[in-house]
Predict the structure.
Amino acid sequence: MRSIYKYPLDIEYGNGSAGWEPRNVIEMPKGAKILSAAIQHGKGVLWALVDPNAEKERRQVLITATGGNIGDEFDGRRFIGTLLFGEGAIVLHAWE
């Protein structure tokens, strides 16, 4: 049986500024389908459709800011979602 699980992203927001890791490594069940990324309760999270009984694997999620450089490591990656902090004052984008 599959379920939708939520996973936190390493993004902090406060006092009008944000700090984030450009590479987030998340352990989730093998074969999980990442559905979206967004803000929940002021924190960056992503949701994935998973088989909770599957063996675990480490997945990498890349985070970049609007106007930031996007290098070759983004080639072939799938866009997951846009995260708006501070009513859109800071805009980040997540890729798998």
Notes: The mean pLDDT is 93.
